[in-house]
Amino acid sequence: MGPLTKNVTDCALMMNVISGHDRRDSTSINREVPDYTQALSEGLAGLTVGIPAEYFGEGLDPEVEAAVRKGIAELEAAGAKTVEVSLPHTRYGVAAYYIIAPAEASSNLARFDGVRYGRRDQEAGTLIEMFRKSRSQGFGPEVKRRIIIGTYALSSGYYDAYYKKASQARTLIVEDYRAAFSQCHVLASPVTPTPAWAMGANADDPLSIYLSDALTIPNNLAGLPGMSVPCGFSSAGLPIGLQLQASHFQEETLLRMAFNLEQRLGLAGRKPDLA
Question: pTM of the predicted model, to two decimals?
Fold first, then answer.
């Protein structure tokens, strides 16, 4: 989870507020939090940007590639160096994620049964009926879809075939990132293979939605920080984003890179120029 803001400065301010250890959250880390706004004043000299070859392959919209390449050129003009890197197991990201994430959803959302947590149906006549109605009414279609997929992947006889294999693929993806960050500080790539969709497009096609995550899922599997920065518009006036990814706890470097890109492109808060 992370902030959604109008510009990089606002993002840094939000990070100052939401970052840090929470004694009531076992997933938070007791680690000193810097003032993220301080990183915005620094240039890009001494930083190296990695360009993942696999993120610029087949299926990438030409307008997206052109906008992202322009953004990378601006980072170079601001003082950063670039180097091509490889993330060879990227192609397994979507398949691995949509086994691991639904499995976690199936496990974690089991508590929302209408008894201990979540919505409770007040008209059910039996306990089983209350479970069924509470979960049916309280979860949306996508949540139900993920619970069903995850329950299947974790079921007896399928765990090794699906969840174990997905976990092994995740390990390979983590190793790819480790090798890449030995050569650079930040990775730059498209956010999605296509420009943003029009509102409501593909709403009834979950597979298309899943596949659009192909370039953002790998760093989620690896537990790395990443952010999207506007870098242009398509000919139809739809926004295009440039994705920045960094190693663990390198949010300052991400914000530093993103702020310099934003300043050079001048797109913060700008709307497309349409005829």
Answer: 0.85
Residues of the chain with pLDDT under 70: 268-275
Strand partners of residue 190: 242
pLDDT value of position 255: 96
Pairs from 211-215 (Cβ < 8 Å, separation ≥ 24): 211/94, 213/94, 213/97, 214/90, 214/93, 214/94, 215/55, 215/90, 215/189, 215/190, 215/191, 215/243
Q: Quick count: other Cβ atoms within 10 Å of Cβ 130? A: 18
With CA atoms as reference, report the closest residue to 255 among 3, 12, 89.
Answer: 12
Query: What pLDDT is stored for residue 125 in this prediction?
Result: 84
196: DSSP letter: P
Distance CA 106, CA 100 (A): 10
Domains of the chain: 8-265 (3.90.1300.10)
Mean of all residue pLDDT scores within the chain: 90
CB-based contacts of 57, cutoff 8 Å, min separation 6: none
- Please tell me whether residue 148 adopts helix, strand or coil conformation: helix
Pseudo-torsion of CA 70, 274, 203, 152, nearest 10°? 10
Tell me what pLDDT residue 221 has.
Answer: 93
| In the chain, % of residues over pLDDT 90 | 63
> Closest by alpha carbon to 132, among 122, 143, 141, 124?
124
**DSSP structure class, residue 224:** -
Query: What stretches of 78-190 show up as alpha helix (H) in DSSP?
Result: 93-108, 127-138, 141-154, 165-180
Coil vs helix vs strand at 83? strand
For residue 275, the model assigns a pLDDT of: 45
Structure confidence at residue 272 (pLDDT) = 59
